[in-house]
Amino acid sequence: MEPDHLQTARLELSAPTTADVAAIHAACQDAEIQRYTTVPSPYLREDAEHFIELTAAWWADGTQPTWAIRYDGRLAGMIGLAKIDTGAPEVGYWIARDARRQNIAVEAATAVIDWAFADDRPAVERVEWRAVVGNIGSARIARRLGFRYEGLLRQAHLNSLGRADLWIGGLLRQDDRTPQEWPLPLG
Question: What is an example of a Pfam family matching this protein (predicted)?
Answer without folding.
Answer: Acetyltransf_3
